[in-house]
Amino acid sequence: MAIHYHCRHCGVKIGTIDDTAINTEQLGFHLLNHEERQEMITYDQTGNLQVKAICEDCHELLQRNPDFHQNEFLIQ
C-alpha cells in the first residue's frame, strides 16, 4: 500500500510514501476528527491511500490572499 499526497487546491502531486510499515499515528492521521478524515483521505481501486493536502505554492497564495479560502480549487 502506498500513500499518495496531492494538493487539494491545484491537484499537483506533492509526494508518495511507499513504506508499508508506517502507521497512521506516524503520519498524524489520528489527530484528525472524523469529518477531516473523510474529507482528506480516500482509498483508490488498488487499496492505496489518497491524501489531500496543500502544496507550498497554494499555501503561499492563501497566506497572501485569505479570501481565497472560500474556493475549493484555486487553479483549474
TrEMBL record:
This is Anti-sigma-F factor Fin family protein. It comes from Cytobacillus citreus.
